Amino acid sequence: MTDRYASFVQSGTGRALVKRLGLPDPPRLRRHAPGEPILPGLVLLGAATGGRLSEPVGKALAAAGLALRDPATAVPDPATGRTPESAALVFDATGITESSQLRPLYDFFHPQARAVQPSGRVIVLGTPPAECGTPREATAQRALEGLTRSIGKEFGRGVTAQLVYVTRDADPGTWTSLEAALRFLLSGRSAYVSGQVIRVGAGQATAPADWDRPLDGQVVLVTGAARGIGAALARVLARDGATVVALDVPAAGDELATVANEIGGSAVQLDLTTPDAPARLAEHLASRYGRVDVVVHNAGITRDKTLGRMDADRWDEVIDVNLSSQERINDLLLERGLIPAGGRIIGVSSIAGIAGNRGQTNYATSKAGVIGLVDSLAPALRERQISVNAVAPGFIETRLTARIPLVLREAGRRMNSLSQGGLPVDVAETIGWLAWPASGAVTGNVVRVCGQSLLGA
Question: Do residues 79 and 177 share a domain?
Fold first, then answer.
């Protein structure tokens, strides 16, 4: 689906009108392409006094092939008043233990606010408030969320901002997963992710032999894989080295076969709401692969009506497909030991599950339930070294959103910090990162892929 407004504002006439009238200005986003460097420039790394992460982060950035800017050169030129541009700003705020120590954030970011390259990245590193030693420290660390979300709305030009909380109880898995998170958040893979809070804990995580193929040797199940986000998911995961089991309903068989053949995966035609679906799926995975390393619950439907006009069938269908079928499949795959240690379960929620949506009580209920599934399963599966996360897409350009009335469609596109809709590949890249073996210490997270939507913010 073409965003004609975004194309128009890139023209000479469009640029002039946007500037004169103060219209939304969708930037061109930098997205990942195989073989390209993570960043097109230098990283400025700063830290508050007493920070515990700047040293390991510096090592991780160097391992990723990123060059650090000398802080001495990141100051305004006396002659021009201009600050040299950086491709990314990374600040270790773990040394801040009370609100009176928040000033270093201003001192670091203030002179850099106009010196971040288009589609640049801002990352602030903190300590989870629940792990802080005093109420004052927890207060100061919680304040970081307001900083990063505001930066995401202020810097413009496609710049994104994230807060990464890193556990105090770090183990080798923590550092591997932190490097994986940095590689994702600094790269074009995270083009439509902004204003997010990501938590990196302790746990099993394995760095890949080749970061360009971080899913080599992994068997990944993708439900709802015939079209839209699911098809993009299958392509991205296969690109990253996975053997993809693409599943969808029999009615989508032709499209499903096309996707599976394109990526060298296998196609499974199955209605997940039938009573024997979990057993049939488990038997297929066991006989063909012996396991499934990653389960991506992408299958979903909408049956929109206001609650007062909604019949019971619309309610039941949406809850069953979008939520209950996930629980049944998880339960059986876990019971049979088909998801091994180091495995991943990833659900697709929605900002509707966070903010609600008129005419979608059934859908919003199901998608909020996906978040509940993550919250409840993550601690339960930690001992089995299986991570559970979800993504929550906002307005994504698909055939479904193409059918939304024009005014609502334009509102959905513009009501975020990037002033545009996302693409299916943006959701796929985020799920791909959560699926990496290197991301094992990232669990219990719900990451919005919404361009920092105003809804539910």
Answer: yes
Is residue 176 situated within a structural domain?
Answer: yes
**Long-range Cβ contact pairs of 1-4 (< 8 A, separation 24 or more):** 1/397, 1/398, 1/399, 1/401, 1/402, 3/397, 3/413, 3/420, 3/421
Same domain, 278 and 400: yes
Give yes or no: residues 36 and 168 share one domain.
yes
Sorting pLDDT into bands at 50, 70 and 90, what band is 457?
low
Do 263 and 366 belong to one domain? yes
Domain-terminating residue out of 170, 200, 230: 200
What DSSP designation does 305 have? B
What's the pLDDT at 421? 96
- Token representation of residue 83: 């600050």
In this prediction, residue 19 carries a pLDDT of: 72
pLDDT value, residue 7? 77
The residue among 184, 183, 137, 185 whose CA lies nearest residue 160 is 185
Q: What is the pLDDT of residues 272-301, one digit of tens each?
A: 999 999 999 999 999 999 999 999 999 999
> How far apart, in whole angstroms, are the C-alpha atoms of residue 240 and residue 265?
13
Could you read off the pLDDT of 311-361 as tens digits, one per residue? 999 999 999 999 999 999 999 999 999 999 999 999 999 999 999 999 999
* pLDDT for residue 158: 97
Comparing C-alpha atoms, which of 29, 16, 38 is closest to residue 397?
29
Active site residue 5: no
Q: Does residue 18 lie in a domain region?
A: no
Say if residue 183 is in the same domain as residue 223: no
Rounded CA separation 222/119 (Å):
30
Q: Edge-to-edge strands of the sheet including 243-248? A: 266-269, 243-248, 219-223, 294-297, 344-348, 387-393, 446-449
Of these residues, 165, 192, 289, 363, which one is catalytic? 363
Residues 267 and 353 occupy one common structural domain: yes
Report the C-alpha gap between 425 and 106 in whole angstroms: 35
- Residue 265 sits in the same domain as residue 321: yes
Say whether both 316 and 286 belong to one domain.
yes
Rounded Cα distance between 84 and 452, Å, is 27
pLDDT in tens, 366-397: 999 999 999 999 999 999 999 999 999 999 99
89: CB partners within 8 A, 6+ apart: 43, 44, 46, 108, 109, 112, 116, 120, 121, 122, 123
Task: Please check whether residue 430 is in contact with residue 36, taking contact to mean a CB–CB distance below 8 angstroms.
Answer: no
Question: How many domains are contained in the chain?
Answer: 2
Task: Please name the helix (run of DSSP H) or strand (run of DSSP E) that holds residue 331, with its range, or none.
Answer: helix 325-335
